């Protein structure tokens, strides 16, 4: 069978318009209200029926994956920039990387949900989470090697602390846009070498990252 025979048939123009309208409506509503926006509201905003929505996107995860297909690339580029900068100043790279993520989270509640919950049924989003954790791991190691970060912490400690703060960004922004910057700075300061003091418990293993964010999502 040749490649042409394996490709799905192109959508009719009206079907393509409906699909694009659904993606646009979902992108707008997810950004404003988060990923738990009712699907019937998305269909109504797009001007189509529920049956049309489910024909294009059988599950919520299918729609989320399509709407945020480019989100992973944004984080990849931010991570690449941070890793390049970290060779000279890993601490500055960590600060810049997380500021970039929090800026995106503040502007889009759907993106907030993406980076603070595990969605293993959407491969692209699961990969985004994995790459973020990998990037943070390298940044932490380099900051420790450069003497800027305390050596009794790991990437999971940082992610564990940042997850709840990230979830709080919409509420903080309702009080004052950019308020999260204060609390991000306070949190990161606790990881500096100068703040070192004995810790009472060992860290959570990196393999529990998805469990952490799944539990955080259930608790909110």
From TrEMBL:
InterPro entries: Homeodomain-like_sf, HTH-type_TetR-like_transc_reg, HTH_TetR, Tet_transcr_reg_TetR-rel_C_sf, TetR_SbtR-like_C. Transmembrane segments: none annotated. SUPFAM superfamilies: Homeodomain-like, Tetracyclin repressor-like, C-terminal domain. PROSITE patterns: HTH_TETR_2. The keyword NAD does not apply. Residues 16-75 form the HTH tetR-type domain. Keywords: DNA-binding, Transcription, Transcription regulation. One of its GO terms (molecular function) is transcription cis-regulatory region binding. Residues 38-57 bind DNA. The keyword DNA-binding applies. This is TetR/AcrR family transcriptional regulator.
């Amino acid at each position: 069978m040749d490649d042409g025979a394996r490709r799905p048939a192109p959508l009719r123009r009206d079907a393509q318009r409906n699909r694009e309208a659904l993606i646009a409506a979902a992108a707008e509503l997810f950004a404003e209200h988060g990923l738990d926006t009712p699907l019937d509201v998305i269909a109504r905003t797009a001007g189509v029926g529920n049956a049309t929505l489910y024909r294009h996107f059988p599950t919520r995860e299918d729609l989320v994956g399509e709407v945020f297909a480019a989100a992973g690339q944004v984080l990849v580029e931010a991570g690449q920039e941070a890793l390049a900068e970290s060779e000279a100043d890993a601490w500055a790279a960590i600060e810049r990387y997380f500021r970039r993520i929090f800026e995106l989270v503040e502007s889009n509640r759907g993106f907030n949900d993406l980076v603070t919950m595990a969605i293993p049924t959407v491969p692209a989003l699961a990969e985004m989470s994995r790459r973020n954790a990998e990037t943070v791991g390298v940044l932490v190691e380099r900051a420790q090697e450069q003497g800027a970060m305390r050596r009794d912490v790991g990437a999971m400690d940082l992610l564990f602390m940042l997850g709840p703060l990230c979830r709080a960004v919409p509420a903080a922004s309702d009080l004052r846009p950019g308020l999260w910057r204060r609390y991000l700075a306070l949190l990161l300061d606790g990881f500096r070498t100068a703040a070192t003091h004995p810790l009472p418990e060992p860290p959570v293993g990196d393999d529990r990252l998805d469990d952490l964010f799944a539990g955080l999502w259930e608790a909110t």
